[in-house]
Amino acid sequence: MCAVSDFDEIKLKREKMPKLIVVLPCYNEEEVLSTTIEELTPLMQSLIDSNKISQDSFLCFVDDGSRDKTWSIIEQFSLSNTMVRGLKLANNVGHQNALLAGLLSNKDRADIYISIDCDLQDDISVIPKMVELYVAGNEIVYGVRSSREVDTLFKRKSAEIFYDVQEAVGVDIIKNHADYRLISNRVLDALSKYQERNLYLRAMFPLIGFKSDVVYYQRKERLAGETKYPLKKMLSFAWDGITSFSTVPLKLITVLGATIFVVSMLISFWIIFIKIFTDQAVPGWASTTLPIYFIGGIQLLSVGIIGEYIGKIYAETKQRPRFIIDKTV
Ligand code: UDP
Ligand code: MG
Predict the structure, then answer these.
(1) Scanning 42, 115, 138, 290, which has the fewest C-beta atoms within 10 Å of its C-beta?
(2) Which fold has domain 6-165+172-228?
(3) What is this structure's pTM?
């Protein structure tokens, strides 16, 4: 395959209006869904009217196993609004898997895809800019929050610490970017080759590479309803954000082990010194206490961290389907 002809093909494709699919994962979102559709439809229409995207572009709502009226609202709208399509997952698989389901099941059906939460906290007015940046030659356009003013102090601070930790262990991320982004079909094709199950999508795109750019926006409050990301889910997601991309914690065990070994050697010399040059040595103390604390500590920590990774290997080897599609409209 000749790289030049590939490039020509990409260039040719970019010159026409790209077909856009907006993917929106929804979990128990009956309170916001109608407003979301009513706000996104005119925006899509104006992009079509101004020849920025093709006429067959559409919105794909992924119902992540909701227990409220989410699916029936999607079905209802799809009857009267040709731009509204839906995908119902058989069970609640979580935001990341739902988003992946929406993207992968539409692979090769469009030129570009935009993922956005259906509570419209992310500003849809930057969508035209994202499309422009794609036409200008970018394969990925990251939506980045310009400030975190609407967040609580706790969320702001914990996010800062989390980014620092990720940086320290070598995870390549875009600060203040969540899952609001545009990707091209090429990127989606690359993404489909990643078979991992412990998903942390926002760090996978920098891993994939390709030319990218960012757009800045202000994140708003949720339109209505409550967050579907309680602290527990957020913490486990954050943990994935580190352990799915870095083996630095494993290396830390080695460093810790070496450090403790050196320290225990120094203590041993000290004990020998006490024994030989003073009369304060307590018989049996050193030989009992030292090994218990040092070896016990190292073992517990090592087993704990190695266990984390074994847990992941276990999940990977089970090869469970990440999502099962129930219905589509
Ligand atoms: N979501 C989902 N499955 C879940 C939890 C959340 O599809 O199990 C969707 C939810 O409907 C929303 C998006 O993921 O569109 C982000 O969730 P939310 O707005 O509750 O998170 P927050 O913005 O508070 O972090
Ligand atoms: Mg939200």
Answers:
(1) 42
(2) Spore Coat Polysaccharide Biosynthesis Protein SpsA; Chain A (3.90.550)
(3) 0.84
